[in-house]
Design a protein that fits this description.
Strands 1, 2, 3, 4, 5, 6, 7, 8, 9, 10, 11 and 12 form a 12-stranded antiparallel sheet that branches. This protein has helices at residues 6-11, 88-99, and strands spanning 25-27, 34-42, 52-55, 58-64, 69-75, 80-81, 111-123, 126-135, 138-149, 152-160, 170-171, 176-189. It has a single domain (6-189), classed as Lipocalin, CATH 2.40.128.110. It is mainly beta. It contains 2 helices and 12 strands, in the order αββββββαββββββ. Strand 9 (138-149) and strand 10 form a beta hairpin.
Length: 191
């Protein structure tokens, strides 16, 4: 039972905007930065379903701290199901469903991208980043909350799969399903 985790990946882009006061463009350290998508279960028999944790490695990205902006890209084909407590066979099946044509259709829509359009400072080391996320061939506005300092930023965003043309996965006649809302969490480190 797989969800539209891709949406989550896009949200990772928001992390980058947690800009401090330094000047110039900084690249995202893709080796030390982490983006995770959390997909939740719902339905009458949800106890028999799985919640999913998906790793969404950042392909590339940058942020500018003097005039806050952020951009980020994720290769949808590299998303990985990290679920614990399921068999290797079930994990592989979830992975195939997630990347396949019924969810992310990652061969048709391989890139997930985010770029900021406005960044609101909420206080010392806290921001709300508004931007556009392209996922599953759809571009929609998103809002990300970010905290950080000294070149390290963490935060989260919530996305609705249906807004990106993704129908949440269902099983057992709809009694077990994935929620429309997914949560993207990130920890971004600048180079």
């Amino acid at each position: 039972m797989i969800s539209k985790f891709t949406t989550t990946v896009v949200i990772g882009a928001f992390l980058l905007p947690a800009l401090s006061a330094a000047a110039g463009t900084r690249e995202i350290d893709t080796q030390r930065s982490v983006m995770t998508i959390r997909v939740f279960k719902a339905g009458f028999l949800s106890a028999f379903g799985h919640e999913h944790e998906i790793s969404a490695p950042i392909q590339q990205g940058s942020f500018t701290e003097d005039k806050p902006t952020v951009e980020l890209q994720v290769d949808a084909r590299k998303l990985r199901v990290m679920d614990q407590g399921v068999s290797d066979k079930d994990r592989a099946e979830i992975q195939t469903t997630m990347l396949g044509p019924t969810v992310l259709d990652s061969e048709t829509f391989p890139q997930i991208g985010f770029h900021s359009t406005e960044i609101d400072r909420l206080g010392e080391g806290k921001w709300v980043v508004h931007g556009e996320l392209t996922l599953h061939g759809q571009t929609r506005p998103v809002k990300v909350t970010v905290e950080g300092q000294n070149g390290r930023y963490h935060g989260s965003a919530e996305l609705r799969q249906k807004e990106f043309g993704i129908t949440p996965v269902t099983a057992a006649g709809g009694t077990v399903k994935v929620k429309n809302e997914v949560r993207v969490e990130f920890d971004i480190v600048g180079k």
